[in-house]
Design brief:
Chains A, B: This is NAD-dependent epimerase/dehydratase family protein. The structure is a homodimer of 307-residue chains. The first copy, chain A, has 307 residues and is an alpha/beta fold. The first copy, chain A, folds into two domains: 191 residues, Rossmann fold (3-Layer(aba) Sandwich); 96 residues, UDP-galactose 4-epimerase, domain 1 (Alpha-Beta Complex), CATH 3.90.25. Chain A is 40% helix and 18% strand. In chain A, the strands form three sheets. Chain A has a seven-stranded parallel beta sheet, sandwiched between helices. The first copy, chain A, has a three-stranded mixed beta sheet with strand order 7-9-11. In chain A, helix 2 packs parallel to helix 4, helix 6 runs parallel beside helix 8 and helix 8 crosses helix 11. The longest helix of chain A has 21 residues. The first copy, chain A, is globular. The model of chain A has no long low-confidence stretch (mean pLDDT 96). At the A-B interface, helix 5 of A face helix 5 of B.
Chain lengths: 307, 307
Amino acid sequence: MKIVVTGAGGFVGRHLVDRLLARGNEVTGIDTHAAAIPAGARALAGDIGDAVLQKEALAGGCDALVHLATVPGGAAETDPAASRRINIDAMYDLVERAAAAGGRPRFVYASSIAVLGHPLPETGVDDSTPLSPELIYGGHKAMMEVAIAMFSNRGAIDGVTVRLPGILARPRGPSGMKSAFMSDLFHALKAGESFTCPTRPEATIWAQSVARCADNFVHALTCETRLLPPTRAVTLPALRISMGAMAEEIARQCGVSAGLVSWVPDPRLEAAFGAYPPLTTPAAEHAGFANDGTVAKLVASALSTLE
Amino acid sequence: MKIVVTGAGGFVGRHLVDRLLARGNEVTGIDTHAAAIPAGARALAGDIGDAVLQKEALAGGCDALVHLATVPGGAAETDPAASRRINIDAMYDLVERAAAAGGRPRFVYASSIAVLGHPLPETGVDDSTPLSPELIYGGHKAMMEVAIAMFSNRGAIDGVTVRLPGILARPRGPSGMKSAFMSDLFHALKAGESFTCPTRPEATIWAQSVARCADNFVHALTCETRLLPPTRAVTLPALRISMGAMAEEIARQCGVSAGLVSWVPDPRLEAAFGAYPPLTTPAAEHAGFANDGTVAKLVASALSTLE
């Protein structure tokens, strides 16, 4: 298959492109940091808002797209206009261009659990929880979920929206993501360093390893869309884990003391990223998506891919 | 209250502005046909996509907005770019401008049952039916429902989205609405003319009289938003009526024969506009919105406002 991946030099993108190449696909990657796109892919450097770049990516045909490029949550709050330009306008243009190229390409869209909003129902989230985003990022992602459904219903594309939970463990350094603390915990404990976690140990997250996430994207490229809800959108299965339990498991697997972690809650940050209620995702499971299975497996997977 | 009404010269807009003026409000109306805006309102002529016009409308303060201006369904299918420009971009700009003006204004958004999509579940539609639009119009309206929820959750505006069913009876003539046949039936029978209905008599619509619709907008301006769902969006209560029953009731009230109506179904049109399943709208009723009560009352109301 000829597959275009936007954000191909990003954290999830690199893992996904490696898998797609290993399966013999012809991959065109787009990224502002083209050097980060895995070797073997056709690498296009630039901003996904660039019309010329979009046309170049689609030239020569395209059976499927995976749209990962985004202005992430923290950056979108700081610069809502940039989020609107990239997360709405550029993506809408890309969907229209992909549709105009013909062949009703599979369009896999990386949405986010941020579409669900704050506060989440304490009793739990399931496939019937209404979307009521509060973050700019979540709002724009949710708007484009609707666009994917509409263009799919019109037969212009064959869309699949997957809502990503926290993906572990991202590289260290500025990512524009306020949820970076979840990943930084892995880096600190693997290095035997102390870590100040901005939540209580009881704080709960929804998480998936990057390897499992990339597998889910591979699945999204070929899954039967008749198994999806009418919205074409599924919340990916994730494990609900307390930060305390995750710290203990990471420490155990790294052979260090969980005492390296001190807990200094930032109430606002914990409310936004560490107060996730029980999650059930029957729609995604029905369509063949999966989580990591256990906390131990998630941690082992995340540690094995730590950069 | 200082209230800005976009599309104030349109069918629903004129009825609404009349009511708002009668209640002593200070109304600024925007319309491409400013001459159609009822006397007594400050009338601004122009396209809602015009930034200068938006600023002018908001200058001098604004407690609430009712956003009716739209590229309607048929026109949006013909010109999706115009729909994107007006139904998404211009509205997004307007919400941001209204928010920036401060005071967290009430923002009442006229959405549409087109957000629900095709085909609708045969067993019926309720407040949990997922949005899966097929029309460009419905897709764009649904995208902006999300934006209203997001900006409301952020405290930037105090949003209320009402999804309009078929509103009866629109003036004769080109409206850009494919559903015009529902209204044209009223005009024909009142004039004692024969009418060819492009559906079977068994075709079902969801309808509301324009007077009831205007009352619902007045209610939306002051209703308690804590009574609304987290999405801030409600499908307005509507009567589900068969075209045959409606024709008989109109004929009865006009003193003409229902035999004036002949039925020549256009299967595609009937599938789109005449196949509405049972509808329940507990969320809207909980928040105080209402339908016309009975078919006879709806028809009487629509006939009394026929232009």
